[in-house]
Amino acid sequence: MPRKERKAAKLWSLHPKLHDDVAQVLDEEGLQIDFLDADDEATNIKDRDTNVMGRFICLNAGCNFSGWSSKKVAMTIRMYPQQRYNARVYHQRCRNCKAVGRLVLDTGSYVERVTYWLKKWNGIEVQPPDFSGQSRGPHNSEL
């Protein structure tokens, strides 16, 4: 019997289900911005690389490393014409086996980062975020 083709692990994800949380914060400033499900690097009018927090679970059954948390999960926020946006969140690899981990995103940090940049791009004065958190582990950029 032929081997079953394994799907390649996704290296990034969009989170349209969090748009309601984003929209609620933006509504406080009178902003109406829609989520764009299609991630298109060619048609965006603004973008920003930033970081959010999250946890990753190693899905490799042969790996003895169950998961890890990260205060530095890379993300690219993009603004598109017609008041639309999306945010690509990049997944990390397990330090032990190099498999791509499954992301459990910190919703609060995602909403804060996305709304910060959407407000700023729309001319609303915003306070820069507080970066007082201390890292408790190495961040391997190769992963």
TrEMBL record:
Pfam families, per the entry: Zn_ribbon_3CxxC (PF13695)
Domain 3CxxC-type span(s) in chain numbering: 51-143
Keyword RNA-binding appears in the UniProt entry: no
Keywords: Metal-binding, Zinc, Zinc-finger
This protein's record includes keyword Secreted: no
Gene Ontology molecular functions: zinc ion binding
Name under which the protein is recorded: 3CxxC-type domain-containing protein
Organism: Aspergillus niger
Lineage of origin: Eukaryota, Fungi, Dikarya, Ascomycota, Pezizomycotina
